[in-house]
Design goal:
single chain, Udp-n-acetylmuramoylalanyl-d-glutamate--2,6- Diaminopimelate Ligase, Chain: A, domain 1, 35% helix
């Protein structure tokens, strides 16, 4: 059974958490058990994810959206204390990896989405503070927009909002999981991508229509489950720990 320090050191290095500026305090956010035999994974830090991780007898929880953010008062009081008490009372460590997981080239959310769609990474996409968050991939053979929608629905258990205004057959795909917003859309447009995929909706309907651009909004939560699942497999193999994914869909 590896030590918590060994797990954290591996994660910090593998995810390269210091390579991009982020609004999240990435890394170990709460120190619990000194030994880690089982790790739970969830998209969000929450009372529900903490409780379920404890019921799974996990010693550690790894999340995409952590508890501590630079824009949030770090005082442990009120609702924040109630949440953190669950970590303390269950000796449960909390590790957060936000943008480092979005952009990771092997197990990142965007890399995994492109793998699902059979589109190997071709170039960096959507820069933040000088570092790319997303990726652009390209399929060898074109596929219909409808087929891509079906893959996303089946693989992510999500509902998609489609703006079908571009090419009928898709090869190049620009992806930014979660909240790609307007910046992602316009950069995908400038790169002449056949399709832009993100999580959150943005009011780009008429611009997409007038410019002839395909867009799929596949859900913020759903598009950010894939990286954690891929990371869990790496930790199972590299550190010989047990892993469990806690699925708490938000519908957003």
């Amino acid at each position: 059974m590896p030590t918590l320090k060994k797990v954290v050191d591996f994660l910090d290095t593998y995810l390269k958490i210091d390579e991009i500026e982020d609004s999240s305090w990435n890394g170990l956010q709460f120190e619990g058990n000194s030994k880690v035999g089982k790790i739970a994974f969830a998209v969000d830090a929450s009372v529900e994810s903490f409780e379920k991780a404890a019921r799974e007898n996990a010693q550690m929880l790894i999340v995409h959206h952590g508890h501590f953010w630079q824009s949030h008062n770090p005082s442990i009081s009120g609702w924040s204390k109630d949440r953190v008490d669950l970590l303390y009372n269950n000796n449960l460590s909390l590790y957060a990896c936000h943008l480092p997981l979005d952009r990771h080239k092997e197990v990142g959310n965007n890399a995994e989405l492109l793998k699902l769609l059979g589109a190997p990474i071709k170039k960096e996409f959507l820069f933040h503070k000088g570092k790319n968050i997303g990726w652009m991939g390209e399929r060898k053979k074109a596929v219909s927009l409808k087929d891509i929608e079906r893959i996303l629905i089946d693989s992510l258990d999500t509902e998609c909002i489609i703006l079908p205004f571009g090419k009928e057959n898709i090869k190049s795909i620009a992806v930014c999981s979660g909240g790609g917003s307007y910046g992602g859309f316009y950069e995908a447009l400038e790169l002449n991508a056949d399709l832009y995929i993100t999580g959150d909706t943005a009011e780009v309907y008429y611009t997409a229509k007038d410019s002839g651009m395909n867009v799929i909004f596949a859900g913020h939560h759903a598009t950010e489950t894939v990286g954690l699942k891929a990371l869990s497999k790496v930790l199972e193999k590299k550190l010989k720990v047990e892993a469990v994914f806690i699925d708490l869909p938000t519908g957003l």
